[in-house]
């Protein structure tokens, strides 16, 4: 396989090596199973249909030209991307699924970018069919995951703007979920994409996702927010200026949900790392310390909520330490 744009290290070829190695291992396993173990050669009958089919598949996989296959799929998608016939819609779905399988390795994902696949997949994110839209998003997410070359190329193509529009406005549940998945794959551990997230007011979109009644969106949006604030302290000031802590505390004060664990984690980071967020959390109207006491009582003894309970306890301890420190400061005066 060709290396990615701008060069790629040998480590990026590991997935491709593992894939080829797996095929060779299949052949070796077959040979061992079908080799006589005694000294005298054993008369072997003709291959069964099952064994012949297995060997044909193995050697076909070894010899296939995956870049050529990707080019063919992309060319067909380019040709039919504006068509709305039932036949062409099914063709789009099948081609996108085939490309998803091909793009599981980093090398193939980077070759997908080179053959123009990213551009056609982005165009298909606006297809009239939601079945095509979510598959295009799934494919794009696959091609950028842990892949800085493709991540940067997607940021330059304003992919985040497209993904957030779909997350906020698309009427199809699965499209929303896949849009959020694509956002997560694009922004994790990529500063260029993270800067783009701030420009696109992405944190507001994540908050809106948490405010929906779609549990999967709530969990994924809360998890991404928590992961980003722990990964990048530079977001603290942006989130403080948005009043994010107050909004997150308001979310917690609704009916208890599984995603509240990640919300509590994000609050813990912001309150412990940013004085302004700490002060915001203590606004009298929120009564957050009282809420923490209640929530701790609710979660005690429930094994499935151990992490959320730990966050509650850490926040309670943080506020107690701050209050003691303030008392000592006042006494010194």
From TrEMBL:
Where is coiled-coil annotated? none
Which Gene Ontology MF annotations are present? adenyl-nucleotide exchange factor activity
What InterPro entries does this protein's entry cite? ARM-like (IPR011989), ARM-type_fold (IPR016024), Hsp70_NEF-Inhibitors (IPR050693), Nucleotide_exch_fac_Fes1 (IPR013918)
**Per the record, GO CC terms?**
endoplasmic reticulum
Q: Which Pfam families match?
A: Fes1
Record SUPFAM superfamilies:
ARM repeat (SSF48371)
Looking at the record, the residues that make up the Nucleotide exchange factor Fes1 domain are 24-111
- Bias type Gly residues, positions: 1-12
Q: Which UniProt keywords apply?
A: Phosphoprotein, Repeat
Q: Where is this region: Disordered?
A: 1-24
PANTHER family from the UniProt entry:
HSP70-BINDING PROTEIN 1 (PTHR19316:SF18), PROTEIN FOLDING REGULATOR (PTHR19316)
What do we know about how this protein assembles, alone or with others? Interacts with the ATP-binding domain of HSPA1A. Detected in a ternary complex containing STUB1, HSPA1A and HSPBP1. Interacts with PGLYRP1; this interaction blocks the cytotoxic activity of the PGLYRP1-HSPA1A complex.
Q: What is this protein called?
A: Hsp70-binding protein 1
Species whose genome carries this gene: Strongylocentrotus purpuratus
């Amino acid at each position: 396989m060709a290396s990615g744009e701008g060069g790629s290290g040998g480590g990026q070829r590991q997935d491709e090596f593992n894939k080829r190695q797996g095929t060779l291992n299949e052949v070796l396993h077959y040979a061992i199973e079908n080799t006589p173990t005694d000294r005298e050669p054993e008369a072997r009958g003709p291959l069964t249909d099952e064994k012949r089919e297995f060997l044909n598949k193995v050697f076909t996989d070894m010899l296939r030209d995956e870049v050529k296959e990707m080019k063919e799929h992309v060319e067909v998608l380019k040709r039919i991307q504006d068509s709305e016939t039932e036949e062409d819609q099914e063709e789009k779905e099948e081609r996108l699924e085939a490309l998803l399988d091909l793009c599981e390795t980093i090398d193939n994902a980077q070759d997908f970018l080179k053959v123009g696949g990213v551009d056609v997949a982005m165009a298909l994110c606006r297809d009239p069919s939601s079945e095509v839209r979510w598959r295009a998003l799934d494919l794009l997410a696959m091609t950028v995951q842990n892949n800085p070359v493709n991540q940067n190329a997607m940021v330059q193509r304003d992919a985040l703007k497209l993904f957030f529009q779909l997350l906020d406005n698309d009427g199809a549940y699965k499209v929303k979920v896949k849009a959020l998945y694509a956002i997560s794959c694009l922004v994790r551990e990529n500063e260029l994409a993270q800067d783009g997230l701030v420009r696109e007011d992405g944190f507001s979109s994540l908050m809106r996702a948490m405010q929906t009644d779609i549990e999967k969106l709530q969990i994924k949006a809360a998890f991404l927010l928590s992961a980003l604030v722990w990964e990048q302290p530079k977001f603290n000031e942006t989130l403080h200026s948005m009043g994010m802590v107050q909004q997150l505390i308001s979310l917690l004060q609704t009916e208890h949900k599984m995603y509240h664990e990640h919300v509590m984690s994000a609050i813990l980071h912001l309150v412990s790392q940013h004085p302004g967020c700490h002060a915001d959390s203590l606004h009298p109207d929120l009564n957050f310390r009282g809420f923490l006491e209640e929530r701790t009582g609710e979660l005690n003894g429930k094994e499935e909520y151990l992490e959320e309970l730990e966050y509650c306890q850490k926040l309670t301890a943080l506020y107690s330490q701050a209050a003691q420190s303030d008392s000592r400061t006042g006494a010194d005066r």
